[in-house]
Batch of 2 targets.
Target 1
Amino acid sequence: MADGGGERIPTVIADQVHIVYKIYGAGAGRGSATSALSRMVRRKASPAISEVHAVRGISFIAYKGEAVGLIGSNGSGKSTTLAAVAGLLPTASGSIYTDGQPSLLGVNAAMMNDLTGERNVVLGCLAMGMSYAEVREKYQGIVDFSGINERGDFVSLPMRTYSSGMAARLRFSIAAAKTHDVLLIDEALSTGDTAFQRRSEQRIKELRESAGTVFLVSHNNNSIRDTCERTIWLEAGVIRADGPTEEILAEYEKYMKDRR
Ligand SMILES: Nc1ncnc2c1ncn2[C@@H]1O[C@H](COP(=O)(O)OP(=O)(O)OP(=O)(O)O)[C@@H](O)[C@H]1O
């Protein structure tokens, strides 16, 4: 229970959600002149369309103040589910309802590689709706939290000079500077070192307390353990289990061990 037994306020409702990726031109001879000619001769209008049915009828309700872990083996539909909750992917059937604005913080979240870390902090904060005054107030805290400048003045260098871990840390620090109604985090924590991971876990706890709901996708079971009290386990696009993190992780760890 998220709030110690008081009224629980739903923030995300997924109702029988199916998500299907359509892959155009996935057939043999894709894009070549011969395949185009063959299509014309056979009077076929478009190249073959393949479908990947990534999420198959999932339903759950997440509440205000909850941090929910999403686990499952590779390709089980975790990132797809997050992107759909963020409103970035349409559902083939079923519905997702969110109360408030969902923000997806993924490993691929957009940053301008040719601009300095400093510029990216400012742009990122403005994009999240902060005023210049707020950005000025938060700037140093964001840089310190990211630890980017621990070994030199990296924040004045273009982002393309950063390692993938450094870039991920800066992205997380920018996103974490604001309270979110629904914060969706895709693997962001696994790239940082232990000290950064500890800081970000602490920050997720604060974000959760200050407002909304956090979803965390991770292959790092310890991150899930330390951050989320509830975990949803996806396998082949279906919810295999949903419940208290310790119970679900124990089942999942056993499943992964047996599969080896
Ligand atoms: N853009 C895409 N186009 C087509 N199929 C996709 C696309 N993205 C993912 N898929 C497919 O959807 C399924 C679920 O992928 P998804 O990335 O959601 O899994 P995941 O659980 O996040 O995996 P991982 O742990 O490896 O990150 C997989 O079969 C994958 O091949």
Target 2
Amino acid sequence: MTAPDRSILKRAAAVRAVGEVQDGMVIGLGTGSTSAFAIEELSRRVAAGLKIVGVPTSERTRLMAQQQGVPLLKPGDRPRLDLTIDGADQVERGSLDLVKGAGGALLGEKIVASASDRMIVIVDDSKIVERLGKATPLPVEIVSFGWRYTVDRLTALGLRPHLRLVDGKPFVSDAGNHIADCHIDEIADAAGLEAELSSLVGVVETGLFLGLASTVIVGRPDGIEVMQR
Ligand SMILES: O=C[C@H](O)[C@H](O)[C@H](O)COP(=O)(O)O
């Protein structure tokens, strides 16, 4: 059997999610390859007359949306968002808790998702896990100043942090921070880990998105699966 084309599955999930968007909505625009399909579909609907305003979760998404003619919120405006559509690196079946941040946009994504009435997560079926943990590292955004101390604190918690590098240099997020990718076998207590990480000096935000996803739309080779919280 040939491997399914992940792009087709991601696009199918994205198109289904954008089907929920209605005139007048303020929409959070996620970051990553799956969200890019959602922006493309939103752009198509905007060209056909849909009236919405988008709130980008990253600089990359802002540029993409602008280029595709999706109207964006003016800097300084801060209405409540009706809906955010975003991808994920892991989705825990059952709780719908997430790991996000492989693309480095976790801080903007969490701020926007937390300001939204609903979050629809769009993924292909490779992202679904029984328990969050080892499928991908957990990204933790840390202040660049003194990052070695912060990495030591993460190590002391029993995590295996690796500073994310791009071309041999520390990755720099939109907010000017670094990211420690933490290798973990299985996250038995996600809320406990989130609380522990958030209390560490030097930690800005974690890629754990707990209780934020209202719906997960999964693109599968045999069709779409919709999971509700
Ligand atoms: O920082 C990046 C984001 O959390 C992405 O939403 C996540 O990594 C999923 O990206 P993709 O849709 O490309 O797999």
